[in-house]
Design a protein that fits this description.
With 314 residues, this protein is α/β, with parallel strands linked by helices. The chain has helices at residues 42-52, 69-77, 142-149, 160-163, 193-200, 205-214, 254-266, 272-286, 298-309; strands at 16-19, 23-29, 32-40, 57-64, 80-81, 85-88, 94-100, 106-112, 128-133, 152-157, 164-166, 172-174, 188-192, 219-223, 229-233, 236-240.
Length: 314
């Protein structure tokens, strides 16, 4: 049984829609020794981060019948529209086990996968100012991205789900991705260093960034966790410092929060450096809590962003 997504065809404008699987995560960290379950998936972190900055947000996603109803209520309570969610009763939800060692290196294992998101899951007449495509387990095809390009002014892409490969036990490794015409339609590209290398085949990150930009991408963001991020636009490289969190409890979702903060600000302010600082500031809050339990409010995020804006080098 599918939840009707036609409700997304509404007159009120949506600022940002994130497309990808919501997930059920089981997380272990040096500060959380006993595995704990949490709502996960890029749409969770991207959407709430953007909503905290005032953006009207929604998701296009699929989950299984095992997806907890309380997670949907939590998303609604945090101003995330879920009318674009399909709940497939006889399917399982996407599930990941995440384990961090003392140096915060992560091991990722897939435990279940929801059905793919199809072109037909994008409602007719649907429009959004921005769309962020963020698959986590190969659930989005190139054709879906090309369809989404036609319904927004800003198309953003995180390629992580395109470059992930899973063995029989669900262990994750990286693979190459035939992007086809996808990158030529993308305005904002966000990835980790390893992911952009997998996309381009370039081992030097600056070369990889230039190759992505050469496809027509306006803004390229490469995140490096607590080491900060690289921003490329208008033929210039900029190093965005990481904001100092009060504590590191769980880094899950930090990259997604970064791009959620960036995009929410980018829709109103075209100073990409400032937007990068807002993304960095937003990410610094989520690592202070477990899973998606800690997000900075707008004034808090802006205050931390101002602290690093003058420290950007480029």
């Amino acid at each position: 049984m599918l939840i009707d997504v036609s409700k997304m065809r509404q007159k009120s404008r949506i600022d940002l829609v994130t497309v990808g699987h919501l997930a059920v995560d089981t997380i272990t960290t040096p500060t959380v020794a006993v595995p704990r379950q949490a709502l996960g998936g890029s749409p969770t972190y991207v959407s709430v981060a953007a909503a905290k900055l005032g953006a009207k947000v929604s998701v296009i996603s699929k989950v299984g019948g095992d997806f907890p109803d309380e997670y949907l209520e939590w998303l609604r309570a945090n101003d995330v529209g879920v009318s674009g969610l399909s709940k497939v009763r006889d399917a399982v939800s996407t599930r990941f086990a995440l384990s961090y060692d003392k140096s915060w290196e992560r091991k990722l294992r897939l435990g279940g996968r929801a059905p793919p998101i199809l072109v037909t899951d994008v409602p007719q007449g649907f429009r959004s100012r921005a769309v962020h495509v963020a698959p986590i387990a190969g659930e989005v095809s190139n054709d879906v991205v090309l369809r989404l390009h036609r319904v927004c002014k800003v198309l953003s892409l995180d390629p992580q789900g395109f470059v992930r490969s899973f063995d029989r036990k669900g262990n994750v490794s990286l693979k190459t991705w035939n992007a086809g015409d996808v990158l030529s339609k993308v305005d904002v590209f966000k990835s980790t260093v390893k992911e952009i290398e997998a996309v381009t085949g370039k081992s030097v990150v600056e070369d990889a960034v230039r190759e992505v930009s050469g496809c027509g991408v306006r803004v390229v963001l490469v995140t490096s966790g607590l080491r900060g991020s690289m921003l490329f636009f208008d033929e210039g490289f900029y190093d965005i410092p990481a904001c100092e969190p009060k504590a590191v409890v769980d880094p899950t979702g930090a990259g997604d929060v970064f791009v959620g903060g960036f995009l929410a600000e980018y829709l109103t302010c075209k100073d990409a450096v400032w937007c990068g600082c807002v993304g960095s500031a937003a990410a610094s809050f989520v690592v202070e809590g477990f899973g998606p339990e800690r997000f900075g409010e707008r004034d808090e995020v802006y205050e931390r962003a101002r602290q690093i804006y003058g420290k950007v080098s480029g």
